[in-house]
Amino acid sequence: MLVETAERLEGALRKYDALGRYGGEEFLVVVSHPKGHTQEIAERLRLKVAERPYPLQEGDLHLTISVGATEIVPLAFEGTERLLEEALKRADNALYEAKRKGRNRVIFYEFPTSDRPPPSPPPSSDRQPWPGACRNR
C-alpha cells in the first residue's frame, strides 16, 4: 500500500519536485518554486490518494491522507540547516493539526508576519560593488 500511495503522490507532482518516505507512514514532498501555490499542490496530493480505492484481496480500501504544508521563507542570517529544521517542524505541526481537525484535509502553516524577512532595500546608485565583483564596462 505504501508503494501504491507513493506512486499516486508522485503522479500528482511535477517532474522537478521530489518525493521521499519520511517515516513509517509519512512522506516528505519538496516542491521547487511553488510561487505561493503550496496549499493548492498539497490539496492535489490529498485528492490524488483519495480518488480511487486501493484494491486488496479482502476488498477495496478507501484511503485518505492528512497533509501539513509550509513554505520555506529565508530568514535573515539563518543557516540552511536551521531553515530546513524549522520548515519541517512547521509542516509537522500543521500535519498534526489536520489530524486533530478530522483528518483527510490540508493545513497550511502560514508564517506570522514577524517571521518574514524584511523587504530588500531599494537599489541604490551609491552602493559600492563587492570586492572582486565583475563590473559592466
Structural summary, described in words:
The chain is of the alpha+beta class and 137 residues long. The chain has a single domain, classed as 2-Layer Sandwich (Alpha-Beta Plaits). It is built from three helices and six strands. A two-stranded antiparallel sheet has the order 1-2. Strands 3-4 form a two-stranded antiparallel ribbon. Helix 1 packs across helix 2 (38-50).
Describe, in short, the structure shown.
With 137 residues, the chain is an alpha+beta fold. The protein is built from three helices and six strands, in the order H-E-E-H-E-E-E-H-E.
Which terms summarize this structure?
Alpha-Beta Plaits, 32% helix, 3 helices, disordered C terminus, 137 residues, two-stranded antiparallel ribbon, alpha+beta, 6 strands
CATH architecture: 2-Layer Sandwich
Task: Tell me the structural class.
Answer: alpha+beta
Task: Determine the strand fraction and express it as a percent band.
Answer: 5-15%
How would a textbook summarize the main sheet? 2 strands, antiparallel
CATH superfamily: Reverse transcriptase/Diguanylate cyclase domain
CATH fold label: Alpha-Beta Plaits
Give the helix level as a range of percent.
25-40%
Task: Please list the strands of the largest sheet in the order they lie side by side.
Answer: 1-2
Q: What's the order of the H and E elements? A: HEEHEEEHE
Number of domains: 1
Gap from first CA to last CA: 61 Å
| Count of beta strands | 6
- What are the low-pLDDT stretches, counting only 5+ consecutive residues below 50? 117-137
